[in-house]
Amino acid sequence: MADILTPEERREHLIPMGEVGWGAVSGRDAIRKVYIFRDFVEAWGWMSRVAIWCEKWNHHPEWLNVYRTVDVTLTTHDADGLTNLDIKLAKKMDALAGASTAASHQSDLSEPIACLCNPDAPR
């Protein structure tokens, strides 16, 4: 089982992720990003490419697809919180979305990611 991110790892990884659209999920030790693609085919193609990595790493997102929008939440259920697996998958998702010229994101739907940098703080 993967270990929960330390406070140092949270500061190192989460703050920069907030700058590229990742946010905190209220009440959970989880991160969220909403990707918006040009159309359904772009969104589904991206999800298919991500799914290959998810299977390879045996780490799977909570996600919802509606037409051209994919709403992603990452947390490691076995560890009951954020681990390096979530960071690794989030970065891979961003890289794969960056390969699509049609991808953007909506960042006003989540809490500020900085609130996850202190795992002992109440959420």
UniProtKB/TrEMBL annotation:
<dbReference type="GO" id="GO:0008124">
    <property type="term" value="F:4-alpha-hydroxytetrahydrobiopterin dehydratase activity"/>
</dbReference>
<dbReference type="Pfam" id="PF01329">
    <property type="entry name" value="Pterin_4a"/>
</dbReference>
<comment type="similarity">
    <text>Belongs to the pterin-4-alpha-carbinolamine dehydratase family.</text>
</comment>
<protein>
    <recommendedName>
        <fullName>Putative pterin-4-alpha-carbinolamine dehydratase</fullName>
        <ecNumber>4.2.1.96</ecNumber>
    </recommendedName>
</protein>
<dbReference type="GO" id="GO:0006729">
    <property type="term" value="P:tetrahydrobiopterin biosynthetic process"/>
</dbReference>
<dbReference type="InterPro" id="IPR001533">
    <property type="entry name" value="Pterin_deHydtase"/>
</dbReference>
<keyword id="KW-0456">Lyase</keyword>
<dbReference type="InterPro" id="IPR036428">
    <property type="entry name" value="PCD_sf"/>
</dbReference>
